[in-house]
Amino acid sequence: MKPFTPLFPILILGATLFSGCSDTLTEVQPRTASQQADSKTKASDISAVLIDLEQAEGQFSQGSKVVLPGVSAGSYDLLSATNGQIRLTPAFSGTLQSMRLVLGANSKIQLTNGPLLALDTPSGTTSGLKILLDDTPVTAGTAYLLTVDFSVERDIVSRGNGTYGLKPVLRGTLKPAPIIIIIPPSTPS
Q: DUF4382 domain: from which residue to which, for each copy (predicted)?
């Protein structure tokens, strides 16, 4: 019996390692169709990308972070040329480096085939959707239009589980808002 005593701990160790390997092997199994990785979304699949904007904050080169007044809270379609533009009037002059759009919980994506689904934005309701700007000088009291450079293929992620996500950092441009004067036609007397 004495010759088998040193082999017993080795057998126990081997059995333990072998049972641990079986768990590891099951973790490396190929993904099923429902577990497929995130993929790019085709523009033809999406008819609207609606963000639920609550407020906008600006990051100035002077180190100031301020809430930008004059931003209308509401739903903005990032695919629409007019509704995708956000009008703001800063109360602070300086060089605006970036903006954070603080989003509510009701951002949605409209699929071309009809369903309206929730749109997830990582940290959108806490730290906001970051919009990078090219160090844009702004003057207090002047109205500006923010246009978000947005692409469905680049900025929307279609997850394997049927949900959609908006990337948390986008690019944008800020330009003075045009002044529109409407003169009604004169009526003949």
A: 44-168
Indicate whether 115 belongs to any domain: yes
DSSP annotation of 34 reads G
Domain count, the chain: 1
Per-residue pLDDT tens, the chain, 189 aa: give them: 455 455 444 444 444 444 444 443 333 333 444 344 445 566 677 899 999 999 889 898 888 888 887 788 899 898 886 667 888 888 878 899 999 999 998 999 998 888 899 998 877 667 788 999 988 899 988 888 888 888 888 888 888 788 888 888 989 988 888 766 666 665 565
Q: Which residues span the domain enclosing 118?
A: 44-171
Q: What is the CA radius of gyration of the chain?
A: 27
